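Self-study notes.
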Amino acid sequence: ELYFKNLSKQKQKEVMEKNGNNHKLRVCVATCNRADYSKLAPIMFGIKAEPQFFELDVVVLGSHLIDDYGNTYRMIEQDDFDIHTRLHTIVRGEDEAAMVESVGLALVKLPDVLNRLKPDIMIVHGDRFDALALATSAALMNIRILHIEGGEVSGTIDDSIRHAITKLAHYHVCCTRSAEQHLIAMCEDHDRILLAGCPSYDKLLSAKNKDYMSIISMWLGEDVKIRDYIVALQHPVTTDIKHSIKMFELTLDALISFNKRTLVLFPNVDAGDKEMVRVMRKKGIEHHPNFRAVKHVPFDQFIQLVAHAGCMIGNSSCGVREVGAFGTPVINLGTRQTGRETGENVLHVRDADTQDKILHALQLQFGKQYPCSKIYGDGNAVPRILKFLKSIDLKEPLQKKFCFPPVKENISQDIDHILETQSALAVDLGGTNLRVAIVSMKGEIVKKYTQLNPKTYEDRLALILKMCVEAASEAVNVNCRILGVGISTGGRVNPREGIVLHSTKLIQEWSSVDLRTPISDALHLPVWVDNDGNCAALAERKFGHGKGIENFVTLITGTGIGGGIIHQHELIHGSSFCAAELGHIVVSLDGPECLCGSQGCIEAYASGIALQREAKKLHDDDLLLVEGMSMKEEEIVSAAHLIQAAKLGNTKAESILKTAGTALGLGVVNILHTVNPSLVILSGVLANHYVNAVKDVINRQALSSVKTVDVVISNLADPALLGAASLVLDYTTRRIY
C-alpha cells in the first residue's frame, strides 16, 4: 500500500511538471438543479480545500434560478462558494418543446461564459437536459469534460442523455462496478474511467448520527416521531407524460388513504411538471393536515429526513441510490428508474395503475428497517476524484479515442458475393510437405493438394506456382472466388515485403527469398506471407479458441516449437520480425544443443526432433523397446516410438517426456510473466501429450496473478493452412460498399 501511495505521489509530481510547475488545474463546476448539487458539492469542497492544485469556477443555471423551485442557488452561496456566472436557461412551458428550447437557450449562452473562464476541465453530472447542453458546449469548444455517474441504466429520456454525455466526455467517474463495465462496453478508454463511488455518499455515511429531531420537527411538525412519516418525491416521465401524471394522482390518493404525515417535494423541471403541481393543488395537498408540500429541502437536512422516515415513495433516483445507505424502506413507482441497481430496501411497483397497488405497497414497506446498502459508495469518493483530477495530463491529445471490440466480418451483398464463395488460396511450406488449399470464409477447406517439398529453391518455387495455378483453376469449378494467396512458412519473415529473411534448417535454400512478387505476377492476385507460428495464432483468432479473445498465445508443438502472440487483438511481429520465437526461450543454461546453435532452448527438449534424438539414444542402448512393441530393421526411430514406449510403462521414456513437458511448461511460465495473456493454446501433434505437464508447471512455478490462465488444446485440424488463409480473408474483406 505504501509503495502505491508513493507511486501515486510521484505520478502527480510528474503531471505537475508536465503541466508546468506553477499551473493549477482550472476546474469549472456547472450545477443545474438541487439534485446534481448534492453530488457536486462534496467535490467542490474538496477542490476548494486544495488551492495549491486547483482553481474553482462555479457556474449556476437551470432550475437553481427559478422561484417556483426554491431559488436553490442560495444554498450554494450559503456553502460559501463564489458563483462566477448565473445563466437563466429555463424556457417556461409544459411540454417537450420547452425542454428542447431550454437546451437551445443554454447552448446560446454558454460559449461566452466558457470563453471568459477558459477552464482546463469542466465537471458535468448526470443525465439532465441542462447537462447535455453543458457537455455539448464544452466538447465543441475543446474543453475536457469529466462526467460524474456515467454508465448507469434507468428509464425515460435520461438514459439516452446520460449515454450521449458519456460519448462527449473525456474522463468518467462512475459509482458501481456495473456502471464501469457499461462504460467499457460503450468503447470508453478504461484508463480514463475511475470507479470512485457516489460523491454524495461521502456526506451520507457521516450524517446519520447528527441531531435530527429538530429537522423532523421543522419540516413535519413537533408531534411527528421517527419512522412514523413518509417522504414523497415523484417526477414526470418525459417519454410518457400522461401516464406519469395519472400515476401521481394514484400515489396521492393512496397517501391520503394511508393517513400518515407526509412530506411531498415539488417535481423537477421537466415536461409535465406543471401538470403535477396542478394535481397536488386540485387534491388540496398544500392545505391537508397530513401533508407538507415544499419546493426544496437543503441536502444535509433532506438526508436526515429520509434516514429516519418510515418510508420513501416516488420515482426519484435518490430513492434507489442514496436512501439505501440508511436501510429506509423505498417504494419505487413506474419505469423511471428501470435498470438501476438497488438494495433489498426497494420495492418496485412498475405497473402502478391502481390506488390499491400503491396502498398495498405502503402497508408492506412502512416502518420496516433494512440492512444498510453501500452499492453506490463507501464514503471515500471525493479523495479518489481529486487524485484522479491531479493525474490528468493537459499535454495529452484532446481528441478522445474509443476502444472498439472486434466485430464480425461484414460480407457485402453484391452479385459476386451472392453467386460465389469468397475464398483464399492457402500455402503451407513445411519441412517435409508442400500443401496448397482452397479455404472458404468460414474456414472450410474446400480442396487440398499435397506434394513433397523440393530441396532446391528453383524447384520449390516452380512447384508452388504450379500448384497455385492448378488450385485457382479448380476454384472456378467449385464456385469459389479467390481473393488472394496466403503463405505460411518456417523461418523469419518480413510480412510487409513478403520476403523470407532466414529459414530454419528444415527448409534448405530458403533465405532472402521474395515470395510475393513472382506469385503475385503469375496469378494476378495479392499475396501475403508470414511465419508458420504467426499463422497458427491468426488461425486461432479467426476460427479457433482465440476468436474474440483480446490477448492470447499459441504454441505449436511439432517437428520444431513455434508460436504466435496476439496482443489487443493484433499479431505481434517485433522490430525485426523476430517476436514469438517461443521455441528458443532458454529454460536451462547447460541443456542440450538446439538447431539454432544455442543450448537449453524449449525446442531442444520438447520438439519432435528432440524426442526423436532421445528415442534413438535409448534404442542404441537397447532401452527403448518394451513388451508390446516391435520395430522392423529398416524402420527409422521416431518420437512416436518414444511416446508408445512411455505409454507401455518404459520409465526411461516416461522420464524423457516428463522433462520435455517441464521444459515446455517453464517456457509457458516465462511467456505468462512477459506478456500476461488470458489464454494459451497448444497446437500440433504433441499438444495432447504436453497439456497436463504445462498446467502442473504453471501451478508450481507461476506467480499467483497469472495462474488462472486457461491452457487449451487447439481444435483446428490445419492451423497453418487456416492461418495462411486468414492473412487473405482478414484484409481483402475489409471493404465498405
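Second protein, same conventions, sequence then structure:
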Amino acid sequence: AALPERRRPGGGRPRYEVVRELGAEEVRWFYREDRKTWKPFIGYDSLRIELAYRALGPGGPAEPREGEAAAAVEPVCVRSGLYEVDVASAESYPVYWNQTEKIPVMRGQWFIDGTWQPLEEEESNLIEQEHLNRFKGQQLQESFDMEVSKPVDGKEAIHSLKLSRNHVDWHSVDEVYLYSDATTSKIARTVTQKLGFSKASSSGTRLHRGYVEEATLEDKPPQTSHIVFVVHGIGQKMDQGRIIKNTAMMRDTARKIEEKYFSNLATHVEFLPVEWRSKLTLDGDTVDSITPDKVRGLRDMLNSSAMDIMYYTSPLYRDELVKGLQQELNRLYTLFCSRNPEFEEKGGKVSIVSHSLGCVITYDIMTGWNPVRLYEQLLQKEEEELEDRWMSYEEQRLLEEFYITKQRLREIEERLHGLKASTISKPPVLKFKVENFFCMGSPLAVFLALRGIRPGNSGSQDHILPRTICNRLLNIFHPTDPVAYRLEPLILKHYSNISPVQIHWYNTANPLPYEHMKPSFLNPTKEPTSVTDSESVSTVPSPTTSPVMVRRHYGESITNIGKASILGAASIGKGLGGMLFSRFGRSSTTTPQTLETGKDGAEGDDKKAATVGTPPFPHSSSGFLEPTVELEHRIDFELREGLVESRYWSAVTSHTAYWSSLDIALFLLTFMYKHDQEDTDKANLDTI
C-alpha cells in the first residue's frame, strides 16, 4: 500500500524552493534482515546514523577535517539500543547476543514512488550527483504538498542520464522517471513487479528525492522500564541461533500488542535472549565418540537435545549448566545497565521467561537448590530413624561417639569454609530481583515432585518459590504440550480437580481480569484408556463435567471429535498407546445436555451440580471450593485450543508454539504493565 504524501513536522515547504544538497533529515537509512525488503530506521536512529556518516569525511558529503581523517567514528546505537551500526562498513550487529549473519544498512536518497523503497546506493549516488550538477540552484516549481503530477507521456525530457541497464529522464526539476533499457534488468524487474507494470521498457517509474517523512530526534523509541530475559530449554546445541529467532518473534508480537493496548504508556518492555548452552564444553566429544553409526542423524539429534536433561541430572555437569545460565543472565544485566544507566535509578524491573528445561535451571539458580542439600536432608532423616529404634548399650555408645565426631568434623568444615568460600554451599546469586517468572511448557513440577515436594495446606506461592526471591510465578502451557506439567496441585492438592485459568484470546473484547476469575471444576472422571472403560463411563451422564465458566468458549464440538479419535486409537493399541492418549487427550468432555443449554448453560450446570454433586475435595466437605483453601494467586494458565487443530499433531508442535502467540504476548504484558496501568489514570485493565 502506498504511503501518504510527504509530510513535515513543521508544516509544508515554501512553494518555491531552490535545489540544494539533501539535508540530514531528508536522507533515510534502511536495514535488511533475512534478505527481505529494506526497512527504514526510525527518525531518531536515521538522523544519528547520517550525522556519523557525514563525520566520516571522504565517504560522506563533509570534507575531512585536519587530523580527524583517520579517527574512527563511534558505532551508532539503534533499534531501542539492541543493535549498533558501523557506518564505515555499512553493517549493523546486535549488542547483547552473537549473530553470524551481519545486517546490511543502506543510505536512501532517491525513492520509488508508492512503495518508498530506496534505490540501490550506487545508482542513487549517480542520480543525486547528476541532479545537483544539472539543477543545483534552480527553483522547484511544484508545491511540496501537491498530489503526484500528471502522467508524462509525450512530454519531452529536459535531461537524461544513462545507467548500466536503465536510464533516468528529468521531465522537470521535480519530475524524474526511471526507465529500463533491458527487461532483464534486476532493478527494473523488482520495481515494475512491485508497481504492477507489465512492459518495463515503455512504462517509467517515478522517483522521489528525499524520504516521505523527515527524520527528527523526537521520533525516538520509548524508554525501557522492564527487561525480560528469555531463557531457552534443550536443543540449542542443535540450532544455536534458535533462541535469538524465537525471542525476535516474541519481541515482534509484543510490539504489536503494545501498540494496540498499551500505547498510552510512555515506557516499553524489552526482550533479551539468553543463550547459555553454546559456551559450555561439558564432556567435550566423549558422548559423540560412543554413539553408534546406524541412524546417526536421529542419534545426533537426541545427543543435541535430550542429552541436556541427562547432563542436568548428572552431578558432574549440573553445576556447569547452572553457572553457564547464571553468568549469562548477570552479564546481560550488567551490560544493559551500563548502556542504560537510568534503568536502575528509575526502578526498572526484570522478569524471566523460560522454556522447557530452562525453567528448572532458572528455578534452581533463584532458589539456590542443589542435590548436595537433598543428600544432607536424607542423611539427617536416616539418623532420626536410627534414634527411634531400640538399640543395645554398645550400639548407643558407638552412635554417641559417631555424633560427637561428626559434630567436630562439621565445626572444622565451617572454619575451613570461613577461610575459603565453598562453591557448593554458596548458592548462585543473581544481580537483580526477579519480578515475574513465566514458565512456558515447563517440566518444573515433575522435578519438584521427584525432589520430595508435597502439597501443603497454605495457598501461598512461598511453598515452592518464596515471594522474597520472585514476586510472581506463572506457569503457561498448551493443553496438549507433552512436556508441560501443572504446579498448583503441588501447593494445594485439590487444585488437581480445578481447571487451569484460560488465557484470553488477544482480540477478546473486555475480558474479565485474571484476578477476578473464579476457580472452576475440571472433569472429575478420568479419560478412558480402553473401549470397555469408555462404555462404562459413557453410560453415566455427568452434567458437571464441563467447567462452569471458561472452557465453553472454545467450541465443545472439538472435545467430542477428540474423544472419538482417542477411543478409536485406544482400541487399536492398549498399554502404552492408551497411556499416551490419556496424557494427550485430557480435556473437558461435554454431554449433549450441556450443549443444548446454550446461554443458560452456566446456570444449568449450577442447578445440576446441586442435585448430582461432584466428588468431594480432601479439604472440602461439599463439592464447592471453600474460600479458606484457595490459592493467593493462580499459577497455572492454559492456552485455549484452536477449533480445527488436531490433538495429536498439536501434541508434536505445541511445545514450540509459544513464541509467536499473540495471546501469550498480551498475557505477559498484562502482568508486566500491571503497576504502570494502576499508576496511569487513563488506562484501566478492565478495558484492555
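Instructor comment on the second fold: The mean pLDDT is 75.
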